[in-house]
Amino acid sequence: MTAFPDVAKIKYEGPDSKNPLAFRHYNPDEMVEGKSMRDHLRFAVCYWHTFRGTGSDPFGPGCAVRPWEDGTDSLDMALKRVDVAFEFMEKLGVPYYCFHDRDVSPEGANLAETNKNLDAVVKKLAESQQRTGIKLLWGTANLFSNKRFVHGASTSCNADVFAYSAAQVKKALEVTKELGGENYVFWGGREGYMTIWNTDMKRELDHLARFFHMAVDYKKKIGFAGTFLIEPKPHEPTSHQYDFDCANSLAFLRGYGLDKEFKFNVETNHATLAKHTMGHELVYASANGMLGSIDANRGDPLLGWDTDQFPTDLYLTAHTMLVVLGQKGLGSGGLNFDAKVRRESFEPIDLFHAHVGSMDAFAQGLKIAAAIRKDGLISDVVKQRYSSWDSGVGASIEAGKESFESLEAYMLKKGDADKNVSGRQELIENVLNRYLR
Q1: 0.90 exceeded by the pTM?
Q2: For the segment 259-305, what is each residue's pLDDT rounded down to a tens digit?
Q3: Is residue 317 a contact partner of residue 364, using CB atoms and an 8 Å limit?
Q4: Which of 137, 184, 185, 339 has the smallest number of Cβ neighbours within 10 A?
Q5: Annotation marks residue 101 as catalytic
Q6: 350 catalytic, yes or no?
Q7: How far is the C-alpha of 68 from the C-alpha of 2, rounded, in Å?
Q8: Helix spans in 69-200 (H)
Q9: Each residue of 173-189: pLDDT tens digit?
């Protein structure tokens, strides 16, 4: 039985295609800078929004039409849902998927029963991976939905909740390894506070760091070779989260001696919630050797909350891929569509339209980024802007050969600084528009 009887395998038909269920730019085997699009982009489908999303929002319940669902969160339904997920991913042609433990498997009456349920689903996931060749990009644990996490997980004021969270992550790490997951993600859904007045911040941060050290120790003990990723987000659901943005998270990791054990999974909508552009977060993470993977989505600038929309903006996708190409790829990471169709797009076919459009947007962004790098027009503007640092006193400062005293003597002799050069912002914007055609 098929969940999507009217959809054939999505194929590449080229830029002139009018078929809404065909790729116009994503040609998996097309070579860009010596590597196939498939290997550059490493697309992944997220299990939670795509297969568990109902279309609910803060103002109303879900209205998504999902004929395969029976209305339960039972183990039987979870097992049936695996077939739906892999049919969708096979027809879409993505190489990876991602999940939280509670996306794929329901909780039981206690931890032992919960783990037993997960083992049953993981067995079927493994069989489906073997049959299709689709792989697990990363796994993670849902430490935010159940009411036990009302005060957080590893930062909870309840020590038993910390212990439960540790047991849950232990199991999630084990199944991620069992399924060949290439990464493991930590997102601190409720690791933060609502009001500072009832919060012992120092103690909570110490507990969070201790939790991460325990995870690192267990990772090494079981021989999990994947990358640990932290996904920053500034707020929502808490008013302040401890993994606020890449800079904040890197400071935390360095402060607790964890910076060599983690990289970042950067999400567009989380960047904008922190009042950053995605470009800022990507460049900051990459500059510090911390960009490991990307959650590909976008927000709505008129709403201001985590709308998790599918990305279609070519300026966004082109700059994202420019950063990725600049660091020679994402390694074990990839582009995970942590995005959901709009509440008004409630039919199953809309899931395909959303993913096809976003995969094309990133494929086009990849080609644009490669063209920008090849032409060198923008990099030439940047190089000229910083040219005073390439020789003379600038090069001497960067080499650590100068002091306040020597620079004072230099300026007393010279009298004043050389004139500044223009930033050429409008020129750069005009050059960018040449590629967006």
Answers
A1: yes
A2: 999 999 999 999 999 999 999 999 999 999 999 999 999 999 999 88
A3: yes
A4: 184
A5: no
A6: no
A7: 9
A8: 75-92, 101-104, 111-132, 159-178
A9: 999 999 999 999 999 99
